[in-house]
Each structure stands twice: as C-alpha cells, then as structure tokens.
Amino acid sequence: MEFIETSEDLRKLYKAPGDGAVRKELRALDGHSKGFLGKSPFVLIGSSDGEGNADVTPKGDKPGFVEILDDTTIAIPDRPGNNRLDTLENVVRNPAVGLLFLIPNMNETLRINGTARITADNTLRERLAVDGRPPISIMVVSIKAVYMHCAKAFMRSELWKPESWHDRATLPTLGQILRDQLALADSADATDKWLDESYKKSMW
Ranges for the Pyridoxamine 5'-phosphate oxidase N-terminal domain (predicted)? Predict the structure, then answer.
C-alpha cells in the first residue's frame, strides 16, 4: 500500500474548495454561532500533546453549558469524570484544540478551532455551577476560526434516525466490556450497578 506524503499530492486527488467553503470561516462568533452554542448540549474536543499523541474527548451538559465570554472567547466547564485528564494535560503541553459542537436532530455542526488554557478561577467556576456544584476546572478557548459544517456526514450515517439505530439490548453493557477487558472479579451486573450508582452521585 502506498501512502500520500505531501500536501501537493493530496490536493491532486481533490477539486479545489468552493468559494463559499473558504469564505464561511469566521474569526469571531456571530449571531448564528452564538445561537448554536446556546442550544448545544454536546461538544467533541480534539487535542494533542505536541509529540504526535492525539485525543478526542466528549463533553456533555445542559444545553448552552459553554459560556460565551466575548466574541472570540468561550469557556467549557469540566465536570467530574475518570480523572485521566488526557485532554487537559494535552492543553497544558500544547494549547491547540479543535471543537465540534452538536445539537440533537440537527445534521449541521459548528466547528471552532483555537487555543486553550485551563483555569480554576473561583469567580468563573461559581458562574458555571450546576445545582450549586462548580466545575473542577474550566477550559478557556481563544477562537481562531469558527464555521458551520455541512450535513453530509450525518445524512450518510443517519445518526439521528431511530430506525437506523441498533437495539441497545443486543449490545454489551459497559460492565460486560470492562469485565472482559480488565478481567474483573466482579460480575458484569455488579459492575453495571456500581456504574449506575456512580453516575447518580457524580454528574456535577
């Protein structure tokens, strides 16, 4: 198998991007992108440690959980998780991030690229608290590019069409997966029960 090694060779395979695809990239949030952020309950964050090790992590919360600090700055709260800190440690080493925001049942997405820093500023943490529980830390992103992404990927995948979904009962539970992958002594049911209790106690 041969691999493409240069941008020039890669570009030979594709047509030039259309004028709209180029001009749609903005340098700051406009009314539409602010409205999208205000309705989005979910974002995927791409990061890298700068040494070739990449990571994508999901962040989900109540719609509009990402705070707009100004036209070129947003704040993403970090709620309790598994404490691996893959993304946060990447950002400390290499601030470049790529964000993909989703709204359920909407095929178009919002993309934001920029640089991020991590803060535990108490004023901002209290501002982003849920039910009196502030986030542990906050990722503050300085925007370099923001634009809407077209619907083709979601249309091809039929992601939002229930008739295309797998029956959840036919798929393994996380307890079953962890039991097999980690050779746990506990049963899958016991692990699933523990996970359910953990979710109830540590969402925010």
Answer: 33-150
